[in-house]
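step=encode ok
step=design start
structure_in=
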């Protein structure tokens, strides 16, 4: 679906320059057939200004943003000025959104190219909120400041929590308003990802009714993300199994920190195994498996406890696209795919159990561990216990006798847990060290995120956001200066809704 070169926005193309930040672009995705993307440049904006730059991330990419003036940085990360080695495209994909299939694509995003780091790693550099594309449908292609800052905050927090994720390199205000329920300041996020290839990309390829397109995409993904599979007996089955394994591990990590993605559509599941697209996401406070934050998830499809099931459902859609590659016989291909998908719950459970054992300081395995964990979670649900603070308190021995004396059910569990710890070799210090490395002190509390976003978007004050980011950069540290950011929300702020950034 490549546009004629003449349709590229001349305003940005004419200003294409080399800015001294050591970009090293390649464009392997753009070497796929042109129905996988449309070639076009970002739509220039009126008055870009730097909201925030991620210098630490830039350094890991081999880039030095300190060489840029604020004006040049704003021009570069708004798309008003393009590096002369950029080859901007909007990617095509499809997706099941809340169970309903639709053809999609980058309706407000532009991929500049794939930056190769000095160590040879490859990362997509993408603008989000950069204007209309052929895939925008009725959207304006723009983004409001608050949702872009939310993605910056949450994605960087997830990275610090050691959870695979896209990351945020910059947020630029556009000097323009975007119309949602009310006029909001516009912004553009620069996102860094292992790639932006999604389950929905494979669904798009399958929608071409062309097995060659599916094979070309699968071969590209294997070469880019899973090169060890090239010599496998059935590389496409191996690809399916690898994606299943990465997603099982990823969703388990979400669950272990109380993260709710909120919009687990197939177009929001990355083939690389990264968390992608931070729209109506949030973290639970009081433990409740039925927690839903997203305003658009009216039936709770993507509630906290459903995330493993939804991941399996999405992976089944991925498997369907690979059927022509799994075996010449469709019947046999379906059997192969079903066997792989049916293995997901066990793969997930292994990852989740290992993580829960770490949260409880258990470095040996006993058959009764599952009951010990489920009993605790049942009690936490009944008490609406703060998920993050409870596990952190447990890991630093802050749970005193008062809790046990006031709650006989917890006292019984606590005694059983202490007995379980005593059966492990070594000292208790080993268990507590594991717990302290597994249970964060701080997460992006929903009310604190909203405070930071409101200050930035409504008042142009980025100080609360920068303080929050400083705290989230060291989530396992006990830093007294950030104690206020660890406090759960007051009752008046516990009824919390998030919104898709496309619509607010």
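sequence_out=
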């Amino acid at each position: 679906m490549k546009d004629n070169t003449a349709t590229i926005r001349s305003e940005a193309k004419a200003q294409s320059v080399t800015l001294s930040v050591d970009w090293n672009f390649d464009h392997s995705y753009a070497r796929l057939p042109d129905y996988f993307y449309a070639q076009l440049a970002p739509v220039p904006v009126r008055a870009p200004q730097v909201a925030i730059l991620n210098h630490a991330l830039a350094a890991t990419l081999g880039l030095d943003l300190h060489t840029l003036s604020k004006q040049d940085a704003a021009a570069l990360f708004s798309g008003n000025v393009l590096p002369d080695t950029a080859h901007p495209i909007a990617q095509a994909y499809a997706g099941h959104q809340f169970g309903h299939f639709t053809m999609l694509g980058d309706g407000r995003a532009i991929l500049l190219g794939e930056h190769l780091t000095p160590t040879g790693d490859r990362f997509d550099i993408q603008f989000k909120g950069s204007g209309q594309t052929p895939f925008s449908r009725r959207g304006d292609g723009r983004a409001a400041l608050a949702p872009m800052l939310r993605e910056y905050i949450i994605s960087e927090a997830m990275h610090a929590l050691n959870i695979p994720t896209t990351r945020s390199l910059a947020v630029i205000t556009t000097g323009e308003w975007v119309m949602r329920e009310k006029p909001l300041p516009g912004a553009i996020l620069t996102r860094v990802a292992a790639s932006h290839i999604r389950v929905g990309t494979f669904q798009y390829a399958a929608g071409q009714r062309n097995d060659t397109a599916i094979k070309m995409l699968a071969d590209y993904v294997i070469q880019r993300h899973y090169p060890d599979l090239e010599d496998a007996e059935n590389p496409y089955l191996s690809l399916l199994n690898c994606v299943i394994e990465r997603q099982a591990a990823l969703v388990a990590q979400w669950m272990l920190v109380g993260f709710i993605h909120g919009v687990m559509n197939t177009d929001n599941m990355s083939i690389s195994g990264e968390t992608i697209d931070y729209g109506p996401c949030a973290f639970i406070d009081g433990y409740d498996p039925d927690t839903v934050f997203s305003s658009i998830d009216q039936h709770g499809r993507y509630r906290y406890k459903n995330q493993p099931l939804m991941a399996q459902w999405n992976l089944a859609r991925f498997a369907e696209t690979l059927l022509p590659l799994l075996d010449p016989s469709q019947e046999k291909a379906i059997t192969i795919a079903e066997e792989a998908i049916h293995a997901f719950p066990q793969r997930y459970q292994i990852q989740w159990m290992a993580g829960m054992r770490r949260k409880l300081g258990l470095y040996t395995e006993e058959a009764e561990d599952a009951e010990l964990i489920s009993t605790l979670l049942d009690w936490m649900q009944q008490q609406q216990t703060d998920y993050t603070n409870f596990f952190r308190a447990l890991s630093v021995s802050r749970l005193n006798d008062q809790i046990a004396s006031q709650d006989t059910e917890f006292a019984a569990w606590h005694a059983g847990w202490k007995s379980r710890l005593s059966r492990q070799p070594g000292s208790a210090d080993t268990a507590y060290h594991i717990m302290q490395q597994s249970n964060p002190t701080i997460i992006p509390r929903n009310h604190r995120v909203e405070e930071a976003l409101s200050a930035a978007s409504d008042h142009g004050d980025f100080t609360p956001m920068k303080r929050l980011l400083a705290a989230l950069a060291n989530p396992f540290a006990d830093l007294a200066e950030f104690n206020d950011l660890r406090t759960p929300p007051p009752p008046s702020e516990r009824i919390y809704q998030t919104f898709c950034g496309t619509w607010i």
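step=design ok
step=annotate ok -> The chain has three domains: 5-196, 200-352, 360-489.
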